[in-house]
Predict the 3D structure of the following.
Amino acid sequence: MGSKNTSISLNLTNQSSTPDFSLVSRPSQDYMDLHDIKLKKVPQILRTIITKSPLDSLIMIDTLQRFAIDYHFQEEIQAFISRQYMCFIDAGGCLGFEGDENLFNVSLCFRLFSQNGYNVPTDMFNRFIDKDGKFRQKLSNDLGGMMALYQASYLGIEGEDILDQAYVFARKNLYDSMPRLDKKQGVINYLLDHPYHTSLTRFAVKEYIKNHESEQGTCDMLLQELAKMDFNIVQFIHRQELQQVFLWWSDLGLAQNLKFARDQPLKWYMWSMATLTDPKYSNQRVDLAKTVCFVYMMDDIFDVFGTLDELVLFTESINKWELDATKQLPYSMNCFLRTLYDTTEEISSKTLKKHGWNPMNSLRRAWMQLCNAFLVEARWFATGHVPTLEEYLNNGVISTGAHVMCVHIFFLLGEGINKETIDLLDNNPSIMTYPSLILRLWDDLGTAKDENQKGHDGSYIKCYMNEHRNSTMESARQHVTNMISNTWKKLNKECLLPSSFSPSFKKALFNATRMVRLMYSYDENQRLPILEKYIKSMLCESIPLYNEED
């Protein structure tokens, strides 16, 4: 399993044929054994580094996360960060090791603590502020510090002005530094376009490895080779899952019965692959892709196919969760409803068997909420009603379908299932609402219509310009961009608050939010070039090891 890759044709436009992964070989036993040997060396090295240098330990943990191999060492990582955070608190906000006045050290610690759910006061950055309340200009000469500060600035929450200032300061100085750089220029460019906190780590593994290849220490070489092998192994798992999704979709026959709808199993799977990143969640990713499929299908039924009378009957059927009310509906709608009910029952049965709780009521409620929200939008369009901003967003966060995805993720993971948590889940808590809002706003930026769909979607920008008559399209779009940034800050705060939800569930919701930008960054040809690039990298191109022949 090396640098020679089987040619696999994958794109995001309508797909009817299953990708042929039959010629892609399974990793050999020797390959797996070598991976296991390297894997066992890492905790030993980490324990050795911890006893010598807390800072080097944090740098190594950051590298493990960037290489997407940290899932192997979660116990060791969490134990160390927890201990280091307690030392930080006991020391009154000092790092507890040499380098307390170093911008890189402080920024790295702030980011790692925050990413892991520890509330860190931003006044730790006050030591870098001058008498005028601004970051000291001489810091701009510290390239590593600027990069770390820029990364840390994305962990801000509402009201933390110092991190807003850090973002502006670091971004400007990184841009200004590029003409003076040679090899580092590409690294800075990538960093500015793909900040760690709002990007999908596994999608960036190859870039991180390439940027790290100048590091030639024994530990660095080990982590690089382990990351490459792990990427190839996980890639094989994803290829198998994708083939399952294509076969499921082909067997359903919905593509033939709903010819008006999008036929994009690859895109549906990419949502689940990006959201549930731990390789152990293989079955969950396949089931989540099915859920995403039905969200897209229902959207198309409302947006491009059904008449208002048909959509009312369709919604009644969903609310009753039965097929008796659908006799007057077109055949394609009946096919969709039957398949949705059967698949939801199947997922509920799996959850009951595995986790001892039947989620049917919650899953039904989620689908009902989505369908009702779609019907509200359909009625708005049919009557020419332009909703207020408040009306539009209250309904719009539901009509994204993101809450349906979130509810399914919760039960697929099966962690923390109890009445209290489910009551919270059923009422769309903020940790679910904020990703939905970010999705709605990104979608409404309207960089392009979704592929070749000819439907009549609403738009926050249209509502905004209707209420603010003097606004321009540019100012309206800037307003939406600012709203997305502020919503990210609210989501960051949710990560720091005590919660009944598991860390795995929170991580999945953050990953889904990170995926949004990739899913809605259309070019002038109504394509998604960034996402298509990642698909090719993630699913079609393995990474050669140093000792493999080209």
Summary: Residues 214 and 220 are 9 Å apart (CA to CA).
